[in-house]
Design brief:
Number of helices of chain B: 0
Number of strands of chain A: 11
Oligomer: heterodimer
Order of helices and strands of chain B: EEEEEEEEEEE
Helix content of chain B: under 10%
Largest sheet of chain A: 7 strands, mixed
Number of strands of chain B: 11
Radius of gyration of chain A: 14 Å
Shape of chain B: globular
Strand content of chain A: over 45%
Radius of gyration of chain B: 14 Å
Structural class of chain A: mainly beta
Number of helices of chain A: 0
Helix content of chain A: under 10%
Structural class of chain B: mainly beta
Order of helices and strands of chain A: EEEEEEEEEEE
């Protein structure tokens, strides 16, 4: 069982470049999330999705975009990379529904992004 | 703005000590409270998901309690071991929105 898979694992970007962080899950989870790890601040929510075709902003959405065209995939797009976006990015998924409302998050292994 | 606060920010204990940390969250529109264990260079792993006021959960030497009316949860570790060294995160879910907000974490160091 692959679980939540993130690619790439590492990436270095120059200021102003764009890229897409890929996230896919094979657990048929309906909820998917993107978080970034800020030192001393835990995990900050960027965007989340409660199902295919539905996305919503989290705490720190500026500079990012997402789409959810399928249940499995939830890519995160950086359009104009800035040094402030240097971070470790985690994708996570869970199943929420009747009789399963207490499902925890399953995390991917993270993508370490450096913007210089 | 949802404020999820954890205290203390860091904790250093000796092997064998018992310890506890606090997670504070808004008491209105509560839906669920999560606890995760996060080791360096790894991904967070779920410990507990708590949904009812008065809930108590236990996994080995780790347990958690929940008070939704006053907006806090405690995580207890009994007889800390060096392998318990990690950052412990709580996360709050308000209503049934799907928006899961994390606290800043408590970093525990257990000295042998």
């Amino acid at each position: 069982n692959a679980g939540v898979t993130q690619t790439p694992k590492f990436r270095i970007l120059k200021i102003g470049q764009s890229m897409t962080l890929q996230c896919t899950q094979d657990m048929n989870h309906n909820y998917m999330y993107w978080y970034r790890q800020d030192p001393g601040m835990g995990l900050k929510l960027i965007y989340y999705s409660v199902g295919a075709g539905i996305t919503d902003k989290g705490e720190v959405p500026n500079g990012y975009n997402v789409s959810r065209s399928t249940t499995e995939d939830f890519p995160l797009r950086l359009e104009l990379a800035a040094p402030s976006q240097t971070s470790v990015y985690f994708c996570a998924s869970s199943y929420w529904g009747q009789g399963a409302d207490n499902s925890p998050l399953h995390f991917g292994n993270g993508t370490r992004l450096t913007v210089t | 703005i949802l404020n999820v606060e954890q205290s203390p920010q860091s904790l250093h204990v000796q092997e064998g000590d018992s310890t506890n940390f606090t997670c504070s969250f808004p008491s209105s529109n509560f839906y669920a409270l999560h606890w995760y264990r996060w080791e360096t260079a790894k991904s967070p792993e779920a410990l507990f998901v708590m949904t009812l006021n008065g809930d108590e959960k236990k996994k080995g030497r780790i347990s958690a309690t929940l008070n939704t009316k006053e907006g806090y949860s405690y995580l207890y570790i009994k007889g800390s071991q060096p392998e318990d060294s990690a950052t412990y995160l709580c996360a709050f879910l308000r209503s049934n929105t799907g928006k899961l907000i994390f606290g800043q974490g408590t970093t525990l160091q257990v000295k042998p």
